[in-house]
Design a protein that fits this description.
Length: about 160
Amino acid sequence: MHQISAELKTWLYASGSLTQQLTDLANGQFQVEPTKEHFQRMRFSDAKWMGMPNQHTSWVRESLLYGCESQPWVKAKSIFPILSLQKRARIFQHIGTKPIGFFLFQRTNPACERRVIWLKDGWTRQSCYTWHGCKFIVQETFLESFELYLQKQHSAG
């Protein structure tokens, strides 16, 4: 069984913008590197969580998030049901290298349900947001390089 370190637990359960939190940790440095954008059918569990029809199609954006090191800290995956893309969430299809959090938390504090799970790349938080009537999932996997950085910071501090 994989244990969650005390330092990482804080990040997994933090509310608010991960973009802002990583930027603060990295003294103002933050970068998004989109790795894949595509349409796919939603997984049954994700559709059920969002209250969407079974076999619903979604637009998926995968990216790596960097702080102040050359290794990525977070592997992110956002799942936008087609129904949400027909509303205000359509802007997320065209943000390029901008972080989703920049738009998501701009003058708003969206409703959020969260679950924390272990995936092969590390501890992951999945957040189901309701933003301007649109539902979507943002999944953030904290990579080993991030945990090592937190440990270095903790030892130095």
